Amino acid sequence: MILVTGGAGFIGSNFVLDWIAATGEAVVNVDKLTYAGNPANFAALADDPRHVFVRGDIGDAALVGALLREHRPRAVVNLAAESHVDRSIHGPAAFIETNVVGTFTLLDTTRTWWASLPAGEQAAFRFLHVSTDEVYGSLAPDAAGFSETTPYAPNSPYSASKAASDHLVRAYHHTYGVPTLTTNCSNNYGPLQFPEKLIPLMVVNALAGKPLPVYGDGLNVRDWLYVGDHCAAIRAVLAHGTPGATYNIGGNAEMTNIDVVRTVCAALAECRPGPDYAALITYVKDRPGHDRRYAIDPAKIRDELGWSPRETFASGIRRTVRWYVDHAQWVAAVTSGEYRQWVAQHYAA
Ligand code: NAD
Ligand code: TYD
């Protein structure tokens, strides 16, 4: 079995569902259930003995140590994090606590336990750390995409905290020999994404007839990847990645934000015809320190591991919009309470 952290969040829950469907291998899923964690995301596994959910913090060394000793996983896949750039600007402390200190505690507790294993199990074990392309900073318009050797230059408290965690993972391989793997992925989208992030926020607001807030001039560029393709990439890296290596994962789908929002509106118009969704687009004050462009050079994972995305942006966005339209109850549940406070505070101006 494997131990997954953050498996109640967006990518984590997609990963747990995908992993059990693709491999049949059991998962212990540890998640603190912050505002971003939602047990409804893995409701389909309610009666499945291959899924064990534990509410807990990756920064709790006693809990992590007990789970490792009890379940003896052959791998840890770390997806637990504070993940939203805008929240990191309003309140960076939680990002340092979970992404830096929490990852350190998870890593160090894993190292102690791993060191006690017989040599064969030590060699077969993997610690896979899921990270982001944002650690590389902002690209000039004509620059080549980020490769695994691009220097780190994080610009937000979020990306700085992820960069710190990546460095710890690297150090634990070089110093202690822990068989680590790190993945740096571009922006994901798909089902089960909390609607504070660009694409689900636009879908949810458009369906409610609310403004679609585009930061600045709307020309910031992101490289979009369908979450199912990310899950397949993580599986490929876990199975065949070289210990100590990092792999960049991207969708070959660079787009400006305004084009993304227009594409969402067009997909909604097909799925739920009626209002002029694009008329809701509203330019708002820019995010402080807003990175202009991210793009991934996916040559290494493609050439070494044979992974490429299956979904195009056009097909992925249709599936995603359809999912949100069909899951009004999920949306209603996650957009109550804390979510309303966040939206009211963040978009107040
Ligand atoms: P998310 O915010 O949707 O989910 C994070 C999950 O982690 C939540 O379920 C939350 O409850 C849990 N969590 C938070 N703090 C925890 C703690 N201390 N202990 C245990 N669980 C905790 O995030 P996501 O978008 O699914 O991102 C998952 C990972 O992928 C993150 O590491 C993120 O940096 C990385 N990533 C995300 C994207 C993206 O576009 N979303 C792209 C590249 C990389
Ligand atoms: P986001 O989904 O927050 O991901 P990240 O900042 O990690 O790339 O934002 C994606 C892009 O969309 C980013 O350039 C900021 C922009 N954006 C908006 O224009 N309006 C919004 O309301 C949000 C949340 C994001």
Oligomer: single chain
CATH architecture: 3-Layer(aba) Sandwich
Amino-to-carboxy terminus distance: 48 Å
What is the structural class? alpha/beta
| Heterogens | nicotinamide-adenine-dinucleotide, thymidine-5'-diphosphate
Q: Give the amount of beta strand, in percent.
A: 15-25%
- Strand order across the biggest sheet? 3-2-1-4-5-6-11
CATH superfamily: NAD(P)-binding Rossmann-like Domain
Q: Would you report the number of β strands?
A: 13
The third-level CATH topology is Rossmann fold
Q: Explain this structure to me?
A:
The protein is globular and about 65 Å long. The chain has a single domain, classed as 3-Layer(aba) Sandwich (Rossmann fold). The mean pLDDT is 97. By secondary structure, the chain is of the alpha/beta class. The protein has helices at residues 10-23, 61-71, 85-90, 93-115, 119-124, 157-176, 198-207, 227-240, 257-271, 299-305, 313-326, 328-334, 338-346, and strands at residues 2-5, 27-31, 51-55, 75-78, 126-132, 180-185, 188-189, 212-215, 221-223, 225-226, 246-249, 254-256, 281-284. Strands 3-2-1-4-5-6-11 form a 7-stranded parallel β-sheet, with helices on both faces. Bound molecules: nicotinamide-adenine-dinucleotide and thymidine-5'-diphosphate (TYD). Residues 5-6, 8-12, 31-34, 36-37, 57-59, 79-83, 98, 102, 130, 132, 162, 185, 187-188, 194 line the site of nicotinamide-adenine-dinucleotide (NAD).
